[in-house]
tRNA-2-methylthio-N(6)-dimethylallyladenosine synthase
Amino acid sequence: MKPTNSPKTYRVKSFGCQMNVYDGERMAEMLGERGIVPAPEGEDADLVVLNTCHIREKAAEKVYSDIGRLTKGKTQDKAPMIAVAGCVAQAEGEEIMARAPAVSMVVGPQAYHRLPEMLDKAVQGERATDTDMPAIAKFAALPERKRTNPASFLTVQEGCDKFCTYCVVPYTRGAEISRPYGDLVTEARKLVDAGAKEITLLGQNVSAWSGEDDKGHAVGLAGLIRDLAKVDGLARIRYTTSHPADMDDDLIAAHGEIDKLMPFLHLPVQAGSDRVLKAMNRSHTAESYLRLLERFRAARPDLALSGDFIVGFPGETDAEFEETLKLVDAVGYAQAFSFKYSPRPGTPAASMEGQVAKEVMDERLQRLQAALNRDQWAFNRATEGRTCEVLVERKGKHPGQWLGKTPWLQSAWFEGDVGIGDLVQVELVEAGPNSLAGRLRECVAA
């Protein structure tokens, strides 16, 4: 018999990257296996899981702010049970327990499969912390996928061995490790059986994935993609995030040979200055990065490109920042993410000399984002008049309106008699900075 204080409803709040979204979905599935249901919209949950990201500025402070909002003005018997998961939990587990008595559980991203047993302890009044990093053991302990979204995530690789000087991932997610080929093919098939039409393969450095196929042959990410493309019912494949050092010939060729692999590539560069890239411990130069993109575009001419940028890395000069703007002009990104440098405790860059003033970073970020937004809108305008396949993912704001993604990962909205999960032909009729208006042509597959 369950204790009377066992949570009956939950809410998982995930921050940051797609891998956190995947982890959040899996934690929700585990809670569902225990008979705990999602809290109705607008109602408080009995259990709140804050699935945190350590990449963003002041990540830990935002966690404490969320904890405060969850407990403010509530008595102990009405306050939710709180679990902190993810990368902030991994990096600052003991401190969270010390600073936030309202937190019952702290669990790192490699140990969240133990959340149910931690919950049992928490119900008995025992606070628990688990930040062990047991490789990929968690995946075997997770429940079977029974229901999913039309566009779903599949983590294939975790951790990173690159040790960029600004990044905490090697410390919070551990060394690079690849999930076994057979497990991934099995999970992909189950995702399709559960309703997925598109799968995005995830990894901190997804292009470093390697394994042995069912015949014992060594394969890389391209080989995995080629075999997943044979799964009946799977219409689209994407992958993120990659490192330029691990983009091999086979993966480049796959973009031109596999119809199900969408014409979109997210390949972070971080800066346009070779000196800054070296200080970041990035293994590429601006020129080698541009040459790599040329090879991908030669394989798939309609490829849309996305990237990541950091402005204000320690020691970055005005002239070096101008090199970043020059690289942006040369590429013409369809999408991109850009951030001000933010020191992460324990990373080499945090103690480097030449920390850039906040106001300088603010001005540089505004200029960079203006250039990136300009190019994104230009890319969207260049697709006006095209008719392409759109995967319907959700309803729009207005009756009869639907939202979905084009092959180039653009958001498109349109009206018509369709349903979530349908693949439809849509004419892109009007481009905005962040999305396109479309006109429904025909349904491809239900």
The mean pLDDT is 91. The chain has three domains: 9-134, 138-382, 387-445. The chain is about 35% helix and 25% strand.
